[in-house]
Q: What sequence folds into this?
């Protein structure tokens, strides 16, 4: 049944000049489908990681405590101003080797290429979230904070109940932007053999020369994911909107 | 008989798609590439510079060297034109060729049936190479069959991927190019790195200190196959002209000389080829 559908699809594509013959080969199709799943898993893991660290970084940056703000500021500048691909190569090929050596051999090193993609891309985008949230936090009127202090809130409570809720609302459009970028950024994993969809496609098209066909699928695939991310963001914006705030 | 509407529509679509993507340069009329090479007085060759002995940049003179370059020079000389090289990598070399950015590829690219379906090639090979597995001396791997379940690093676009996965059940990690793959091997991210045997044996020899814990741990080569020159499909004139030059390079012993000066590990295949072609021409 499935085979019939596949051959039908291949024939249909052939009539418009597209070569999808790899769909009948065993290991390439498996690698390709695994690639789609891996990309989705990467997206589902890196989005919450970037958000959690984004909030932590923003809190540190606006804490007014030097020992917290300075290292985080240094990290934000470093990661924002250098290419992600280089960071990833550095992490996987250099840092990872140093870690292996420190642990007495690669067999003791549990860090996989997958870990490095999640860590590098997640934390990279967290730096952008942090900047967006910092802007939001700093935009909270000082009178509002004074009022919160007057009713006895400490600085953590002010952050949790006053600053963040307002900052999230004003930063949401840029956070969604960052998330859309994060989804696309996961493709750098292909450079260190993380089997996501771009990697799988490169593996297939270098053997079969069906670049156009696989590119089309990649474009459609990412468009769909990001359409969903953007719609959710839009819905959240509407849902969280405070009448009268920010207008 | 009138063609039915479906056929006409299909034909139109085919033509439209071809035009839209600007690929499939294999038009029905004469071979434009040879004419263009002669008219420009220049042969543009896509070469891979992933390391000695096939292609590298001499650190002292900044010149491109290696077997790929020597063969490219000889071809340009044979056609009576100048040589222009364009560096390519395994994942992008086919696109460079298909989009007409290079005329031919001399890019460590062995003959496979799959490739021959979409590309043209010069039938006489200029070398024959197989894959060698570099790994730690204490890894316990002694044969290709020992790779079951082990991780093998290759470069993206390598034709060793399929046999490693399908025949030997290895987990393959493909990195952008050979240096990254070897670095990943050193970092312990893979059990072996499988690359063209000539390149890795020379590297182990020249950088013995750095690689003292490593060796080529499997004595036989993986799928020894013919290194051929690739071109766009349907370019019969270019193909014939280049084939004649490659044959004469075999017969005159030039290719053996190139192999010696570039320190290729084995020239047995080239000697055999020379003998065969000499006998054939008598």
A:
């Amino acid at each position: 049944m499935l085979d019939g559908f596949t051959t039908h699809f291949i024939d249909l594509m052939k009539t418009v000049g597209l070569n999808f013959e790899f769909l009948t080969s065993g290991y390439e199709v498996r690698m390709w489908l695994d690639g789609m799943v891996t990309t989705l898993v990467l997206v589902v893991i890196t989005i919450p990681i970037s958000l959690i660290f984004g909030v932590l970084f923003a809190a540190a940056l606006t804490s007014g405590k030097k020992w917290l703000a300075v290292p985080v500021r240094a990290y934000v500048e470093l990661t924002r101003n250098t290419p992600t691909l280089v960071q990833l190569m550095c992490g996987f090929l250099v840092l990872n080797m140093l870690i292996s050596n420190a642990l007495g051999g690669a067999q003791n090193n549990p860090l996989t290429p997958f870990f490095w993609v999640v860590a590098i891309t997640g934390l990279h985008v967290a730096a952008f979230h942090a900047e967006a949230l910092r802007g939001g936090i700093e935009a909270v009127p000082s009178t509002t904070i004074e009022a919160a202090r007057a009713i006895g809130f400490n600085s953590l409570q002010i952050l949790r109940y006053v600053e963040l809720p307002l900052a999230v609302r004003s930063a949401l459009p840029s956070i969604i932007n960052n998330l859309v970028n994060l989804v696309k950024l996961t493709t750098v994993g292909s450079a260190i053999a993380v089997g996501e969809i771009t990697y799988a496609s490169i593996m297939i098209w270098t053997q079969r020369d069906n670049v156009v066909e696989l590119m089309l699928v990649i474009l459609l695939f990412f468009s769909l994911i990001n359409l969903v991310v953007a719609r959710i963001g839009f819905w959240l914006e509407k849902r969280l909107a405070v009448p009268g705030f920010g207008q | 008989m009138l063609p039915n509407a479906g056929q006409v529509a299909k034909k139109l679509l085919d033509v439209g798609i071809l035009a839209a993507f600007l690929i499939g340069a294999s038009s029905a009329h004469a071979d434009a590439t040879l004419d263009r090479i002669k008219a420009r007085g220049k042969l543009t060759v896509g070469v891979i510079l992933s390391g000695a002995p096939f292609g590298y940049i001499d650190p002292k003179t900044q010149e491109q060297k290696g077997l790929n370059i020597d063969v490219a020079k000889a071809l340009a000389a044979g056609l009576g034109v100048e040589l222009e090289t364009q560096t390519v990598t395994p994942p992008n070399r086919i696109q460079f060729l298909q989009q007409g950015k290079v005329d031919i590829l001399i890019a460590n690219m062995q003959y496979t049936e799959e490739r021959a379906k979409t590309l043209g090639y010069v039938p006489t090979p200029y070398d024959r190479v197989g894959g060698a597995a570099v790994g730690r001396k204490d890894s316990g791997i002694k044969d290709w069959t020992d790779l079951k379940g082990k991780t093998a690093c290759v470069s993206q676009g390598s034709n060793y991927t399929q046999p490693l996965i399908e025949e030997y059940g290895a987990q393959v990690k493909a990195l952008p190019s050979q240096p990254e793959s070897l670095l990943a091997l050193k970092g312990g991210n893979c059990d072996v790195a499988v690359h063209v045997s000539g390149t890795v044996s020379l590297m182990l020899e020249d950088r013995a200190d750095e690689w003292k814990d490593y060796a080529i741990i499997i004595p036989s080569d993986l799928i020894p196959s013919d290194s051929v020159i690739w071109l766009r499909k349907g370019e019969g004139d270019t193909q014939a002209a280049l084939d004649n030059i490659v044959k004469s390079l075999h017969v005159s012993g030039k290719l053996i000389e190139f192999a010696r000066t570039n320190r290729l590990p084995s020239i047995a295949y080239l000697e055999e080829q020379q003998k065969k072609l000499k006998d054939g021409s008598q």
